[in-house]
Task: structure prediction
Amino acid sequence: MAVLQPHPTTTLLPEREFHFTQANFDRVRELIYQHAGISLAPVKQDMVYSRLARRLRALRLSSFEDYLARLEAGDGQEWETFVNSLTTNLTAFFREAHHFEILNKQLREQRHRPLRIWCSAASTGEEPYSLAMTACEAFDTLTPPVEIVASDIDTNVLATARAGVYTMDRVERMTPARLQRFFLKGKGAQTGHARVRPELQRLVTFTRVNLLDARWPVHGPLDALFCRNVMIYFDKPTQYQILKKFVPLLRDDGFLYAGHSESFLHAADLFRSLGRTVYERADRHPTGGRTLK
Ligand SMILES: C[S@@+](CC[C@H](N)C(=O)[O-])C[C@H]1O[C@@H](n2cnc3c(N)ncnc32)[C@H](O)[C@@H]1O
Result:
């Protein structure tokens, strides 16, 4: 039996409803990189196929060529759906809990003035609402003088975040005290769900921001900037450009919070690590920085 030699641009991936060639996959990778900065690993072929095959069905298209042509013709609505389809939105309430303990301390120390926080990859809202709960706890009130701007590139997750309704399995790992203080348990048709209290929602403003855009609708000065578990999808030059734009937004004594597997050592001229994936501006205290202990 003859052995088929794969060709880099024409290889068909396993038998599927739609032909999905290596060239199609490479084009998708280019487009999402240019548009959202996301570097999709070569092993993501199956994921890309299954997420975009849904779009082909919904649009009644018969090939990836037709789908890509439609995108490249500039269909704005489909661009939004394309990006929404390819983001990874994994998140949780109080994810990487030590950051919220550090933030609590930071807010208590600076409680003499109103504070501003930007949550720049907010996903479905668990992170900004955890920030809001931390602010309420630090000030011991449901109306702390804290403003939280929460943004994401993905309009679907932002809609979920704005609604503030979660299934019980997403909220159950929080302490009963937090659940009682910050959530309303659903009844009737809403059984099995919990809704974030309106007081908490009032602390958070949601808006769409693509971190790759030249201009952001978010102004400083910020006391804290949460940019967690999104930089891992970007290459180092893209990360550096974003970090450079963070610097003037962050207060001199503000903190940048990164995800557990993210390191900004390649941008040491911009941000200095304080340990525990928390950073301060490198131009602060040239003779020695703070510690988090
Ligand atoms: C894995 S989630 C992290 C959520 C949250 N920060 C956390 O740590 O739990 C990554 C989020 O980054 C968003 N994202 C990806 N590319 C982005 C971009 N270019 N600009 C803004 N957000 C982006 C995705 O839509 C997704 O919701």
Observations:
- The mean pLDDT is 93.
- Residues 36-38, 87-91, 95, 121, 123, 127, 152-154, 157, 209-212, 228-230, 233, 259 surround S-adenosylmethionine (CB under 6 Å).
- DSSP finds eleven helices and ten strands in the chain.
